[in-house]
Amino acid sequence: MASTSDIRKGLCIHYNHDIYKIIEFLHVKPGKGPAFVRTKLKSVTTGKVIDNTFSAGHKIEDVRVETHKFQFLYQEGDFYHFMNTEDYTQIRLMKDALDTPELMKEGEVVTVLINTEDNAPLSVDLPAHVILEVTATEPGVKGNTATNATKPATVETGAQINVPLFINEGDKIRVDTEKGQYQERIKE
């Protein structure tokens, strides 16, 4: 049993007869009244995101999880297939269990949270950033850089990302997986 002081990003808890993963939280101590914790919870079974507020000191039932490294193999409809890098066992997960599946390319190594009670996979955590190749983008207009302008670009996984005007097709870029935003161009 944990309390609100143990709340952190990525913690899995039992709530409303389901298992939720905390994706955002904020401790609030108003000038008047008791402190509380405002959270955003994502269901690991349905992918639905809800907002909830816990009063300070509230007891929460956390889920014991293990983390394992898995390699993303391929996508088949709404299912994503992964292989454990240690014992080569394979699992398949629904698209809802993934936070940003459009940023994952084949061969990417990810961290899978597994419930220790029933060995069921709960969620997939991508690395903090991934390197992807730009496959399609419009050429930038010269002289339009004073406003920090961006343009849409399609990367090798099919995701749309806004990039600076100097990015061209064939460039490799680093993308923040949490926000899905461009970070920098990778020089080779």
Please name the defining characteristics of this protein.
single chain; 188 residues; mainly beta; SH3 type barrels; OB fold (Dihydrolipoamide Acetyltransferase, E2P); 3 domains; six-stranded antiparallel beta sheet; five-stranded antiparallel beta sheet; 16 strands; 54% strand; cytoplasm; protein biosynthesis; Transl_elongation_fac_P; Elongation factor P; Elong-fact-P_C
Folded structure, characterized:
- The structure is a single chain.
- By secondary structure, the protein is an all-beta fold.
- It folds into three domains: about 1-60, SH3 type barrels, CATH 2.30.30; about 65-125, Nucleic acid-binding proteins (OB fold (Dihydrolipoamide Acetyltransferase, E2P), Beta Barrel); about 130-185, Nucleic acid-binding proteins (OB fold (Dihydrolipoamide Acetyltransferase, E2P)), CATH 2.40.50.140.
- It has no helices and 16 strands.
- The strands form three sheets. Strands 1-6-2-3-4-5 form a six-stranded antiparallel sheet, with no helix packed on it.
- It is flat and about 55 Å long.
- The relative contact order is 0.14.
With helices defined by DSSP (H or I, 4 residues minimum), what is the helix count?
0
The secondary-structure element order is: EEEEEEEEEEEEEEEE
CATH C-level name of the largest domain: Mainly Beta
The name CATH uses for the topology of the largest domain is SH3 type barrels
Based on the structure given, which CATH architecture of the largest domain is correct?
A: Roll
Q: What profile does the largest beta sheet have?
A: 6 strands, antiparallel
List the uncertain runs. Answer: none
* DSSP strand count: 16
Indicate the percent of residues in helices.
Answer: under 10%
**Structural class label:** mainly beta
Strand order of the largest sheet: 1-6-2-3-4-5
What fraction of residues sit in β-strands? over 45%
What's the overall average pLDDT, rounded?
A: 84
Taken from the alpha-carbon principal axes, the silhouette is flat
Q: Count up the domains.
A: 3
Radius of gyration: 20 Å
The CA-CA distance between the termini, in Å, is 49 Å
